[in-house]
Amino acid sequence: MHGLVSETNLILMLRLFIMLSVIVFQFSHVAAQTNTYIFKSSADTYTELTGDIALTQMVFATGDEVEITALNGTTFNLFGKSWTMDGITKGILIFPNGLVEAIDTTGELMVFDGLFRSLDSIDNTSKISYKIDGAVGSKILKAQWKNVKIQSGQTGNFVNLQIWLYQNGIIEYRYGPSSVNNASGYTTSTGPSVGIFYSPSDVSQIYQKLWVYGLPPSLQLDSSKNISFPNISGVPANGTVYRFVPKTVAASVHSATVKDMLDVFPNPANKVLNIMLDEAPKTKATIGLYAADGRLLKEYALPANKNNINIQVADVPTGIYTLQYTQGNTTSNKRIEIIH
């Protein structure tokens, strides 16, 4: 009897150990995930897709999705992970309600919400379609929702949207012509959901998230690892581009090093950052100040042929920030510190 009790206790202890190990693993998996994206809002002319493939089998106002099997064999670098689409365990899906998903049937999900809300057609010009552009290694999936209405919006509303998913992990939401009554009138409950997140398939927890909310163009970002997705209170204006860029891509778009391009002083700074470029840009450039969670705090235009600018930082809290210089396809980052 004594031996049996000891054996039973041992089994219970082993079970408890296994349960605790699973809990610790799950917690450490979430805790180890850091936000790998930064967000930037810009403007570009909205151009309707040509040569696109209409998803005629997709029904508006439903949640039924279509897998893009033409991407099988293509590897996308998303949220710091390489995903090769195979049509069996991993795939990319387009949904009728303004979103794209990358799924792993073994238990993971990546969501790209450009206008997540129940959508419907307005007339015979309404359609959902896609196109794959680019050469091998630099492909772009372009999904389009043309002339659709938001069911929670006002009567007669319409909107146009494209979601571009790059192989290197860049995600772009491109907003086209929309009705005037879509510019506002929504709440954080009824408005479109816009952002990206990475989670288990059941969304029981969040590994990474970068969510946009507020009334465009005055936006706020939420990168907290909670299951909360506040909405935007109006559809972004025609020509708006929301861009989610992997930090690794932003740091290596151009082969030139930050040290070669930027001279920032003082660093640490208290009231003013003085920025000098080794060479004046030949075309317009921008300099942005980003918080650690990817929020764009300040952005300044640097005119062509000018190689210096001063940024006021007296109103920026003490902390570590990223200064990003962008000109065309050239992007460079520099770590700075602000101390008050």
Q: Main traits of this protein?
A:
340 residues; mainly beta; Immunoglobulin-like; 2 domains; 8-stranded antiparallel beta sheet; 7-stranded antiparallel beta sheet; disordered N terminus
Chain-wise SSE layout:
Elements: H1 2-32, E1 37-43, E2 53-54, E3 66-67, E4 75-78, E5 81-84, E6 90-95, E7 99-104, E8 108-116, E9 119-121, E10 127-133, E11 140-150, E12 159-166, E13 171-175, E14 193-200, E15 208-215, E16 218-222, E17 240-246, H2 247-252, H3 258-261, E18 262-265, E19 272-277, E20 285-290, E21 296-302, E22 308-312, E23 319-327, E24 330-338
Antiparallel strand pairs: 1-17, 2-10, 3-6, 4-5, 6-7, 7-8, 8-14, 9-11, 10-11, 11-12, 12-13, 13-17, 14-15, 15-16, 18-19, 19-22, 20-21, 20-23, 23-24
Short description:
With 340 residues, this protein is mainly beta. The chain contains 3 helices and 24 strands. The longest helix has 31 residues, at 2-32.
